[in-house]
Design brief:
GO terms for molecular function: ATP binding; ATP hydrolysis activity; ATPase-coupled transmembrane transporter activity. Its main location: membrane. The protein is of the alpha/beta class and about 280 residues long. It has eleven helices and ten strands. The chain folds into two domains: about 240 residues, 3-Layer(aba) Sandwich (Rossmann fold), CATH 3.40.50.300; about 35 residues, no CATH class. About 40% of the residues lie in helices and about 20% in strands. Strands 6-7-8-3-9-10 form a six-stranded mixed beta sheet, with helices on both faces. A four-stranded antiparallel beta sheet has the order 2-1-4-5, with helices on one face. Helix 3 crosses helix 4, helix 3 packs parallel to helix 5 and helix 5 runs parallel beside helix 6.
Length: about 280
């Protein structure tokens, strides 16, 4: 079944980008389409172009060639056009210290909407809602640089959420976080996805990508190697090897149980350990 144009929120057409004029390209003809409201995991070896692609989608980088469309229209690189784009396509950087710069958390979160010239009363109301939503109230008056890694990540997400985006891009959101704060950030991301926000996430955790994403995009040497549903991607051994990915643990275990005759061969591969446990409990 073909995808309606109205269902595509971001489209990338043959995009090339190099950091130096005569240097090698970080993006070598990337083409992909992102459907509205989807959760998409981007995976690949370091240097494959994930972060560069994200910065192009947000308008921070302008492609050397090719086209990026948002809601069916080519990105407008005028000052006004970029402000409009960044209010709708927000990016949370891997290192929050590259994003946070204001004296206090409250000032940090208010910078974006005030920079757009929105009324202060409206901005204040939005900030209060986001602070409550992300449970930032206990440290909203503290300096951003004095926060823990998990708290900085919360504030980074709040920076974007207060702009009412259609798309949130997260570049390795769990990087340098402990298990507790990784779980907290994942729960925040799930709430945003449930509200219909399109989520693009770079991750090296293939087990998480399998259970979380609607689609996985595998990138290799500045191109899209494979874009498909998680099971299709995670069972493609050749593509996984090319991008330095391991097969998810749940699929390895599932294969062993099928070969031993514990589970039937015609079962849909499970996307989580919980689903695999249900198969075993029901003896299917």
């Amino acid at each position: 079944m073909s995808i309606g144009t109205e269902d595509i929120i971001i489209e990338v057409k043959d995009v090339h980008y190099a950091y130096e004029e005569d240097g090698p390209h970080s993006l070598n003809g990337v083409s992909l389409r992102i459907k509205r409201g989807q959760k998409v995991a981007f995976m690949g070896a370091n240097g494959c172009g994930k972060s560069t692609l994200f910065l192009c989608c947000n308008g921070i980088y302008r492609p050397d060639s090719g086209t990026i469309l948002f809601n069916g229209k080519p990105v407008d690189y005028s000052k006004k056009g970029l402000l409009d784009l960044r209010s709708k396509v927000g990016i949370v950087f891997q290192d929050p210290d590259n994003q946070l710069f204001s004296a206090s958390v409250y000032q940090e979160i208010s910078f974006g909407p005030l920079n757009l010239g929105l009324p202060e009363d409206e901005v204040r109301k939005d900030i209060e809602q986001v602070i409550e939503y992300l449970e930032i109230t206990p440290f909203c008056d503290r300096p951003a640089h004095a926060l823990s890694g998990g708290q900085k990540k919360q504030v980074s997400i709040a920076d974007i959420l207060v702009m009412h985006p259609d798309v949130i891009i997260l570049d390795e959101p769990a990087a340098a976080l402990d298990a507790k704060h990784t779980k907290m950030v994942n729960q925040i991301v799930d709430r945003l996805a449930d509200e219909g926000i399109t989520i693009l996430m770079a991750t090296h955790d293939i087990d998480y990508a399998l259970s979380w994403a609607d689609e996985i995009v595998l990138m290799h040497e500045g191109k899209v190697l494979l874009q498909a549903d998680p099971v299709t991607v995670c069972t493609n051994q050749e593509a996984l090897e090319m991008t330095n990915q391991e097969e998810p643990a749940v699929l390895k275990l599932f294969d062993k149980l099928v070969k031993k005759g514990v589970l039937k061969e015609n079962l849909r591969p499970p996307v989580s350990m919980g689903q695999l446990e249900q198969y075993i409990e029901h003896g299917v």
